[in-house]
Amino acid sequence: MAWESRKRISALLEELERLKALVPSAASSVPELGISEFLAQEFLPAVAAVEGDLAEAPHLKSWSELLERHRFVAIIAFRGSLKSTLAKAVVAHALRSHQRGAYDCVYYSATVDLARWHLRRLKLYLEALAPSWGWRDATSGEAVLRYERAGAIFTCEPAGLDQASRGRRGNLLVLDDVSDPKKLASMADIQRALEALQRRILPLLKDKSARVLLVGTPLIEGDVIAWAEKNPEFVTVRLPAILSDGSPAWREKYDRAELEKIRRLVGERSFNAEYLLHAVAPTDTFLPPDVVERAILKIGSDSV
Fold first, then answer.
1. Are the C-beta atoms of 147 and 137 separated by less than 8 Å?
2. How far apart are the C-alpha atoms of 104 and 245, rounded to whole Å?
3. Is pLDDT above 50 for 303?
4. How many CB atoms lie within 10 A of CB 228?
5. Which residues neighbour 197 within 8 Å (Cβ) at sequence distance 6 or greater?
């Protein structure tokens, strides 16, 4: 008798699973998009709704195509090139594409506070997008992404390269703004950051499909970005603000006249590091990134 009951329950459960499979989910109604199409059609318009109009950025297409072909990618580019925007887009695209089970992402920066800032910004971009893909925000104002829907959960947590890893295994690791002159003032500091990456971060990849994206500007010689460039597992692309033929890399936003204004304002050493990608030795000094950012904003306000 008990055996017959178990058999009927098992048959009922199988039928329930079959019926559930016939019901289209919110996720199945979302058309598939590659990263490049996703950027152009959905993500960049969401960014513009928060940040204001964005100049057309042709280089994003080639970067996106690289990400679609390779698991380990390092994008080394000048300040203001939208490389951090692309990093956020990769997380958003993973959310859009995730169907079932748990998906875990960790967003690393030089400090956990900086990583939190990046994720808060990304959450603003996702306010309208995530619900349209069938996701419900399971947090309230936190600097953590946690989205849920029937049969699936997606999380992305902030972390600092200077802190001990929590040991969470991830499907996607993003390293954005990991080179900080204030944190990497000596070769010993650089070595500690590299050890954190090699011993506590990269071993946390969940499986053979897990991905790593590093985006940044090489401010300090021998730092994490330099390590990735030398690592044969990473596919690396470099984009300085001024190309080898003297033309601007992103003429839609920074023509040569604009770049020369920035050079005069921030100084040769900082311009070489931030825009031409010539890293300096740890013992050298130059203007911190936040000072450079304020200088660029000043140029914009002066030209209005």
1. yes
2. 42
3. no
4. 24
5. 161, 175, 224, 227
Look at the chain and report how many structural domains it folds into. Answer: 1
- 16 in a domain, yes or no? no
For residue 297, is pLDDT > 80? Answer: no
Q: Which pair of tokens denotes residue 47?
A: 């960014």
Using a 10 angstrom Cβ sphere, with 0-12 exposed, 13-18 middle and 19 or more buried, the burial of residue 129 is: middle
Give the DSSP per-residue string, 185-237: -SHHHHHHHHHIIIIIIGGGB-STT-EEEEEE---BTTSHHHHHHH-TTSEEE
Q: Could you tell me which residue, 141 or 148, shows the higher pLDDT?
A: 148
First and final C-alpha spacing in the chain: 84
88: domain CATH number is: 3.40.50.300
Q: Quote the domain boundaries for residue 45.
A: 35-240
pLDDT tens figures, 95-122: 999 999 999 999 998 888 999 999 999 9
Q: Is 279 contained in some domain?
A: no
Neighbours of 3 (CB within 10 A): 7
- Cα Rg of the chain, angstroms: 22
Is the pLDDT score of 281 beyond 80? no
Instruction: Please report whether residue 303 resides in a domain.
Output: no
The answer to the question of residue 136 being in a domain is: yes
pTM over 0.70: yes
